[in-house]
Structure formats: C-alpha cells, structure tokens
Amino acid sequence: MYSAPRGTTDILPEEQAYWRYIEQKAAHICQLYGYERIDAPVFEDTRLFTRGVGEGTDIVEKEMYTFDDRGGNSITLKPESTASVCRAYLEHGFQNLPQPVKLYYFSPIFRYERPQAGRFRQHHQFGCEAIGEADAFLDAEVIDMAWQFLTSLDLQKFLLFINSIGCPRCRPKYLEVLTAYFASHIGELCPDCKTRLGRNVLRLLDCKQPACQKVVNQAPKSIGHLCLPCAKHFEQLKSYLRVLEIPFEVNQRLVRGLDYYTRTVFEIQPEEEKSQSTIVGGGRYDGLIETLGGKPTPGIGFAAGIERIVLNLERQNIVIPQIPVPQVFVACLGESARNEAMKLAAALRCDGIGVISATSAKSLKAQLRQANNLKISRAVIIGDEEVKSGTVILRDMTTSHQSVVKPAELPEFLK
After folding, report:
1. Domain residues for 400?
2. Does residue 286 share a domain with residue 344?
3. Residue 56: per-residue pLDDT
4. CB–CB of 378/395 below 8 Å?
5. Which pLDDT does position 276 carry in this prediction?
6. pLDDT of residue 115
7. Cys-Cys link to 199, which of 56, 79, 95, 177 (CB 3.0-4.6 A)?
C-alpha cells in the first residue's frame, strides 16, 4: 500500500475544524490591522532564495527541494514566503502605493529536515509582511498583531523573546568579534558549528547541541555592538511594547535562521518547561528588497506555523467551533419516491439547508440507522403514499416524534 511521503501528513476531515478556526481568526486579525491577502506561487526561481535567504543558511545548503523543470529552469518549492512576497511587491509595482504595504498569506512550506511534532517537511504557515516603513512603531505593531492573533485563539502561557542583530553598518564589526571568540574555542564546538564558523557565524548562537552551550552562552552579545541608530531603534521597540503591555524577554542568543534579517528579531514560544517549539517567528529585513533588485526598502514580518498552533490548541484542550454539518437526512421507499426525494434534497440545499440523501435502496430501518450513525437530528421520509398525497413525514431522530407536512413548508419547519 502507498503511504504519504515521510515528513508529510494528511489533514483529515476530523482535523479540519482546527484549520478553519485558525484561518478565520487570522483573517479577522489581519482585517483589523489593515492587511490584505496575497497568494504567491508554491514554487519560485531558485535564485530568489539563494540570493534572498542566503547561500550560507541551512535552508539553502541542506533543506530546499530544488529541481530543473522541462525547460531547464532551476525551480524550488517555497522554503519560506517572505522572499516570494517581496518579489511580488517589486514585480507588481507595490512600491508606488502608499507605504507601508501590508500583506498576509497562508502557504505550504517545504524543507527537507528531520520531521518532528508540529513541524513536517511540508508544513503550513500564516504570515504577514509590512513593507516600506523603518520606524520601530511598526515593529511593535507587528509583534502586537502576532500576540493578539494567539490571544484570539484562546491560547495561553506563551512567551515573547526579542533581540536586535544590528544592521550592515554595525554588524560586520560584531561578526569579527564573534568569529574571533568562537575561533578561540573551536575545539569545544560541535562539527556543524565548526563548519558554520567560516560561513555564517551568527548561526552558532542558535546551536542546540549540549556540547556547545557553555561556549555559546559566554559569546559576545549583539546588543553590545549596535550602532547608535540600531540601539535607539531597539530601545524604542522595548518602550512601545511596554506601552502595549506585552511582556517580553531579551534573548541575546536569538538570531533567526535567515540572512536577510536586520535589527529586530523575535519569537513567541509556549511557556511549558523544555519546550523549544516556536509558534511565531519573525523580524525586520531592511535589505531584502534591495538584494532582490529594488530600491532600499525596509520591511518587517512574521510567520506562524499552523501545525504547531493546532498542537498547542490540542494540548491546552481549547474547545473550538465545529464545522457545520448537514442536519437533515432524506429517506425514501420506492422508485417514484426516490425521484421526489432527489428533487426535495436539491430544493432544501438551495434554501441553505444541509442534506444527506439515502443513495441506495435500503430498508427504511437501515436508512434511519444511517441517519443515527451520522448524528443527524431530522429525517424526512418519502414513500409512495407521500408521493400520492403530496406530503412528507418529518421525524425527530432524538424523540422519534413524527409530523406530516407539505414539502413547501419544510424549510420553515427545519429553520
């Protein structure tokens, strides 16, 4: 038998209520903050990610699904969405619109990495991007939006971590200091960190290997090497978050895994002990638009992993609205009754009433048993006698009470 490829999963009908609930809450929050939806292709030119995300990142080096199409073009399934949104911003002239341009999306994401709880090789993200404004006020608003989104889902006990990793003016000096520090401790580093040292030294701060923790914890901190504008920006962000009464913790090891980040980076994580499953992650990317060929344009955004949010909803036993299901079952006996049952079911659906019809010539008892198994509260029964009299029988499946009504009266009875 075939099965889903490793690192992918089917989202079954009984799980769909969580997904619709999350999507509805996300869309509502986006509307409140003035964001409009965008849907980018599921695959892009590979150069968009090697140039935008960064050739020295784990994503580009190890995790991308890349292939040549029949025209010989190198194509990559999206490993993240920010670069795609920025490409669309440039391609469609959004730089000529009032800034910042605020966009949101739902998208599958593809990364060849070790599958884990709530994170698969194909997973799904809800994300937002605000492009065209550098003020820390916008950073705080974007973080507030992510915070209010989680709160609207009734999720509790999550933590906000923030950091600043500087800009092209101050970061090179910090990277020199950081490289020198780790080079002096190279014998204490894991193999991955030794490889990253010469290519992407910031990633060493995010290492989870126990052998590296002591060295990483004592490493120079980015906020101690910020230029004056970056330091001021970070202080303003913290001030705005206090105004919004959003609790936060400065995590000086927080760097995120993409080369395009500048200044603000942030993550929201569950509060449970030993949990490292980030629910929301994001930051500022003031140089990305320019890297992709546009004029210098600041931007900030975040992405939320939907699978991880579902996992946390389940862990916290949050009751969510169920997707409405048909509450009427149409049973019939006899060929002429079958034709009338088909017409009646179609008419009820046109009136906005969900209907499931018996589709085979079972006995009435078997049809009503099917209605019970489907947990349907009302059954409409049509037999040859009902066809002759122009009536139907309406049965309450809970009390077994039955009424004889005319088909034209059914919508009012049922509503």
Report:
1. 328-414
2. no
3. 67
4. yes
5. 54
6. 86
7. 56
Of 290, 315, 340, which marks where a domain is finished? 315
Q: Which pLDDT score, from 0 to 100, does residue 302 have? A: 97
Count of all residues that appear for the chain in the document? 415
Task: Look at residue 77 in the predicted model and tell me its pLDDT.
Answer: 96
Whether residue 407 sits in one domain with residue 338: yes
Compute the half-sphere exposure of residue 53: CA atoms within 13 Å on the CB side of its CA.
28
- Same domain, residue pair 280 and 345: no
Beta bridge partners of 257: none
- Tell me, yes or no, whether 194 lies in a domain: no
Number of domain units in the chain: 2
pLDDT of residue 275: 47
Same domain? 384 vs 248: no
Please report whether residue 77 resides in a domain: yes
* 300 and 370 housed in the same domain: no
The string over 114-149, giving b where at least 16 C-beta atoms fall within 10 Å of a residue's C-beta and e elsewhere, is eeeebbbbbbbbbbbbbbbbbebebbbbbbbbbbbb
- Express each pLDDT in 271-310 by its tens digit: 875 445 889 999 999 999 999 999 999 999 999 999 999 9
Has residue 296 been placed in a domain? Answer: yes
Report the pLDDT value the prediction gives residue 150, as an integer from 0 to 100.
96
Q: Are residues 281 and 345 in the same domain?
A: no
Last residue of a domain, one of 289, 315, 341: 315
pLDDT of residue 32: 96
Same domain, 254 and 399: no
Rounded to an integer, what distance in angstroms lies between the CA atom of residue 314 and that of residue 318? 6
pLDDT score recorded for residue 306 = 94
pLDDT beneath 50, residues of the chain:
274-275
